[in-house]
Every structure is written in structure tokens, then in C-alpha cells.
Amino acid sequence: MVGGAFNAIVNSLVKDIINPAIGLFFNTDLSNLNWQVIEAVVDAEGNVVTAGVAIGFGSFASAIINFLITAFSLFVVIKVANKAASLRKKEEEAPAAPAEPTEKECPYCLSKIAIKATRCPHCTSVLEE
After folding, report:
1. What domain range is 62 assigned to?
2. Do 23 and 85 share a domain, yes or no?
3. What is the DSSP string of 43-69?
4. How far is Cα 112 from Cα 86, in angstroms, rounded to an integer?
5. How far apart are CA 88 and CA 1, in angstroms?
6. 10 Å Cβ neighbour count for 19?
7. What is the 8-class DSSP label of residue 24?
8. Residues 32, 81 share a domain
9. Both 16 and 77 in a single domain?
10. How many folded domains does the chain comprise?
11. Cα–Cα distance between 127 and 124 in angstroms, integer?
12. What pTM did the predictor assign?
């Protein structure tokens, strides 16, 4: 539903704003530009002998502009979504702060002892704070 509404907005932007602005250079609306391949030929009695054939490159250019705006908008939305997902993933993977140490090493016998110990249980040395 949002895509349909967005498409209507882009169509209006191209039709009502961009086409007339580009048409300023051609003195007509961009979607009305065409190339007459065969002119309509009328005989002496007023009957159309051959119908005119025109290639409407203006409406094709409007469709290209419409596509480019839609594609760019979709590109931006996907880039933002990917960036948000990568930021969320980085937050989840971030290591927690290292825990406070619970042991220390006896400077005399090099045994592991409790961090709050004042005497080594292995060599019975008195530890200085």
C-alpha cells in the first residue's frame, strides 16, 4: 500500500513538476514531445489517405525519469535499513567490559591467591597491600 502511494507521488512529481520544467527548453510539456515519422496525408476530397505515425520519446523520457526517482528512493531505503541492521549487529557483538580480577599472584611463591588475601596460603608469607 505504501509502495502504491509512493508511486502516485512520484508520478505526480514527474508529470506536474519535472515535465513542465524540462519542457521549458522545448516550449511544450515533455510528455507531448514526439517525432513525426509519417505525416497524415489528406486527399482532395478530405479523406485521410495515410495516418500520421509519431514516436513519443517525451512520454518515454518521463517514464525513465519516473523509474530513476523510484529506483533511487528504493536504493536509499535499502541502504538505511542495512546500516541500521549492521549497527544493531555491532551492538549485540560488542564484548562486555572485562570483569574485575578475583585473584592475584603471590610475589614470593607465584601462586594464585584471593585478591583480598593478606597472607599467602601456600608459603604463608605476609602480603603488603
Report:
1. 2-93
2. yes
3. -TTS-EEE--EEE-HHHHHHHHHHHHH
4. 41
5. 28
6. 22
7. T
8. yes
9. yes
10. 2
11. 9
12. 0.53
